[in-house]
Design goal:
With 193 residues, this protein is mostly helical. It has one domain. 67% of the residues lie in helices and 0% in strands.
């Protein structure tokens, strides 16, 4: 990447001061990290953000700007195994651990590695849940947007109640079907992407 392109991406004039470059670069990376930190993990969308972090790495190299990385190591992640309610809880814990690690850095190289891990983690979870729920008939359930994720606590509780043979209230039963359908839609979208 050449200097002019890097400055255009950061929306800077032709001859910015080093402070202006640093502030603009920090704001650029912060915006991407903030998205990864706050939004529902949809692999295709997050992959595009990780690609933007790779571009930010090039910008940093081109403009000789560095941002701190307090600890660039990936956190220890729990395996996705056991009953579905455990998988949901462990996945939520893993996402939380990764996002906590992301909060400690603005270095685009570190964030790229963590963002990539987050994408792969979500893909594995979505695939696991889609396969696990494959024999369920979900045709009567409403389609929810991929970003409309049910809280992991409520989702895991509904799955646990179902596994333990406890009756679900009608609203929870409906929402459970909608969440599984949303996950299947994400899984199908990742296959075609």
């Amino acid at each position: 990447m050449d200097r002019q392109t890097a400055l255009i991406v950061l929306q800077l004039p032709e001859s910015p001061t080093p402070e202006e470059i640093h502030e603009a670069f920090e704001a650029h990376v912060f915006e991407i990290r903030d998205f990864l930190f706050r939004q529902t993990v949809i692999p295709q969308v997050f992959r595009a953000k990780v690609d933007r972090l790779l571009t930010a790495c090039e910008i940093g190299e081109t403009l000789s700007v560095e941002l701190p990385c307090l600890d660039g190591s990936l956190p220890e992640l729990l395996p996705l195994e056991g009953p579905a309610d455990r998988v949901v809880r462990d996945h939520a814990e893993n996402v939380g651990r990764l996002r906590t690690a992301m909060a400690g850095t603005l270095d685009p190289t570190c964030l790229t590695r963590m963002g990539e891990c987050l994408v792969r983690l979500q893909q594995a979870y979505v695939q696991w849940m889609a396969q696990w729920s494959d024999d369920r008939a979900l045709e009567g359930h409403s389609d929810r947007p991929m970003r409309d994720e049910w809280s992991s606590d409520a989702f895991a509780s509904a799955l646990e109640n179902e596994r333990m043979g406890r009756a679900l209230d009608p609203e929870a039963g409906l929402r459970l079907g909608e969440e599984l359908k949303r996950i299947r839609k994400m899984d199908a979208a990742s296959v075609t992407a």
